[in-house]
Fold this sequence. Notes:
The structure is a single chain. The protein is an alpha+beta fold. It folds into three domains: 7-119, Acyl-CoA dehydrogenase/oxidase, N-terminal domain (Butyryl-Coa Dehydrogenase, subunit A, domain 1), CATH 1.10.540; 122-229, Butyryl-CoA Dehydrogenase, subunit A, domain 2 (Beta Barrel), CATH 2.40.110.10; 233-378, Butyryl-CoA Dehydrogenase, subunit A, domain 3 (Up-down Bundle), CATH 1.20.140.10. Helices cover 52% and strands 15% of the residues. Helix 7 (231-267) packs antiparallel against helix 8 (279-307). The chain is globular and about 80 Å long.
Amino acid sequence: MDFSLTDQQRLIRDTVRQFMDTEVRPLVKELEREERFPLELMRKLGEMGCCGMLTPEEWGGAGLDTVSYVLMLEEVSRVYTAMSTALGVTNSAVAAPLVQFGSEAQKEKYLSRLASGEILGSFCLTEAAAGSDAAGIQATARRVGESYRLNGAKTWVTNGSVAGVYLVFAKTDPPAGGKGITAFLVEPAFSGFKIGRHEDKMGQRSSPSVEILLNDCEVPVSRRLGEEGQGLKIALSALDGGRIGIAAQAVGLAQGALDESIKYAKQRCAFGQAISEFQAVQWMIADMQTELAAARNLTYYAAWLKDSGKPIGAAASKAKLYASEMANRVAYHAVQIHGSLGYSRETDVERMYRDARVITIYEGTSEVQRMVISRELLE
């Protein structure tokens, strides 16, 4: 199978790489220290087409393939993972479901604004007592005339304090369990919508994760995405595609950690020679590169399947599982190669080490990915 990049794909990769190296990299430490979301930089990426890569051109997007999307996320993550998280949610968790399930009016209202970076999207599924068990959510939606009243609380909402539209899942028929979940497009100006506490996180500290409180939040019927009871299907389809993006994020982070390790190993001297001359360091770098190449191939394969219209469930889970765990191992070795300096907030690898940890958790934990993979094999 040929994974050679097209001229257009190379141009996308190189353009995003240049932007991240010249405009974002000099600001990363400041953004991290201040826990400030880089909204203006995100809008610039939107102007470059990065916020609507998978959205058809007729709705203001770039209309590109999944491999191109993966390349973009890799390059962003190589420099600053927090920005790739915001991009991934907007592209795959909000815009993609809108393209697949939205009405013409809904697409007209939101897609071009999402694609341009004018607004960002948020995906509101997780609750305090419902993470991996998506069918266990407790938020409810009751229809009253031409609107719904939503009640409940969502947690760990990425982009939650900066989004312009929230894809919220609530039960319109609680006794039906997962079959009673419905999806809604909610705006922060809607009555009864409130942003709650911000999570004080280990990593990705400039990517806001917040609590969303719904207290009789009034949502017009016209903002229901799909039909009543279709919400879980919409959520799971978004997560399937999103897992490819998370795998790409992990690959990008690991590439950044490897780049920093190689550069440092050549510069740092001990016992009269560069530490890159020591077999112990050479073997760590060799293992890092080998695992990274394996994860990249799994990710590109899943992206190719998606572009080919083939089922992606298990392939996306394999890519997400291996790449996310690989990123943690690579970041660990990067810190080890840097020694005590790698434990300092002055280095990029210290941040990468913290940023990598959550990648095995969101968009489905490693344990959930193993369930998906084994279920396909055993059935």
